[in-house]
């Protein structure tokens, strides 16, 4: 396990979006698909906004 500390929520959200995209790309190449379960609430709101925007959504 690796623990990362980021200076603010925006940086954390960008890094998390990049991480999700890397996992998605690896899963699609390896297994032909990617499945992601998302939590509700307002905590991950910035991450979800990023994932719905360019360049992450494609």
Task: Walk me through what this model shows.
The model has no long low-confidence stretch (mean pLDDT 93). It is globular, with a radius of gyration of 12 Å. Helix 1 crosses helix 2. The protein starts with 8 loop residues before the first helix and ends in a 7-residue tail after the last helix. The chain has 58 residues and is an all-alpha fold. The protein is built from two helices and no strands. It has one domain.
Q: What string, H for helix and E for strand, traces the elements in order?
A: HH
Number of domains: 1
Strand content: under 5%
Determine the fraction of residues in helical runs and give it as a percent range.
40-55%
Query: Number of DSSP helices?
Result: 2
Low-confidence stretches: none
Distance between the termini: 29 Å
Average pLDDT: 93
Structural class, from helix and strand content? mainly alpha
The best one-word shape is: globular
Number of strands: 0
Q: What's the main sheet like? A: none
Over all CA atoms, what is the radius of gyration? 12 Å
Key terms:
single chain; 58 residues; mainly alpha; 2 helices; 0% strand
Write the layout of secondary structure elements.
Blueprint: H1 9-31, H2 45-51
Summarize this structure briefly:
The chain is mainly alpha-helical and 58 residues long. It is built from 2 helices and no strands. It has one domain (9-51).
